[in-house]
Amino acid sequence: MKSNDWKGRLGVMYSTNPDFQYNTEDGEEEETLPKEKQQLRISLDKRNRGGKVVTLITGFRGTPDDLTSLGKLLKVKCGVGGTAKDGEIVVQGDLRNKVLEILRKEGYIKSRII
Questions:
Q1: Of 18, 32, 73, 95, whose CB has the highest number of CB atoms within 10 Å?
Q2: Can you list the domains of the chain with their CATH numbers?
Q3: Do 91 and 82 contact (CB within 8 A), yes or no?
Q4: pLDDT tens per residue, range 20-29
Q5: For residues 29 and 103, what is the distance between their CA atoms, to the nearest angstrom?
Q6: How confident is the model at residue 93 (pLDDT cuts 50, 70, 90)?
Q7: CA–CA distance, 68 with 84 (Å, rounded to integer)
Q8: Confidence class for position 76, pLDDT limits 50, 70, 90
Q9: Is the pLDDT of residue 11 over 90?
Q10: Record keywords: Iron included (predicted)?
Q11: pLDDT higher than 60, residue 1
Q12: Parallel, antiparallel, or unpaired: how do β-strands 54-58 and 88-92 relate?
């Protein structure tokens, strides 16, 4: 932890122990599963989106960087916007079949539409 990272210490009280170490809850990143073993679920979602329809890809197991790169690949191939965070990828519009086709071409063979 940086010495000037005061946001990470907000919940810590003062300690007089000279050997005290801040317990940062930085867990190890989950290792990304191979493409063949990923079980991605593709669904249509329009809850809490102002009536807009999005394609939601869930079930990704891996690092946030790999999730972001897969999200970018899908957005570029579909030619739309979206986001990749919190273990799910959101692609604007109803593109379930196109996303499934792209994922299967990339090697995610266990992907399915729900």
A1: 95
A2: 30-113 (3.30.780.10)
A3: yes
A4: 776 666 666 6
A5: 23
A6: very high
A7: 5
A8: very high
A9: no
A10: no
A11: no
A12: antiparallel
Strand partners, 41: 58, 112
One-letter amino acid of 86: D
Picking from 24-28, 60-64, 81-85, which range would have the lowest pLDDT averaged per residue?
24-28
DSSP string, 41-77: EEEEE-TTTTT--EEEEE---S-HHHHHHHHHHHHHH
End-to-end distance of the chain based on CA atoms, in angstroms?
42
Tokens of 67: 């999730």
User: Which two structure tokens, joined as six digits, stand for 3?
Assistant: 């010495």
Task: Name the residue type at position 29.
Answer: E
pTM: 0.73
Looking at the DSSP bridge assignments, the partners of residue 56 are 43, 90
Residue bearing tokens 């991605």:
40
- Which residue shows structure tokens 């050997």? 19
Tell me the CA distances in angstroms from 82 to 3, 4, 91, 93, 94, one per residue in order: 36, 34, 4, 9, 12
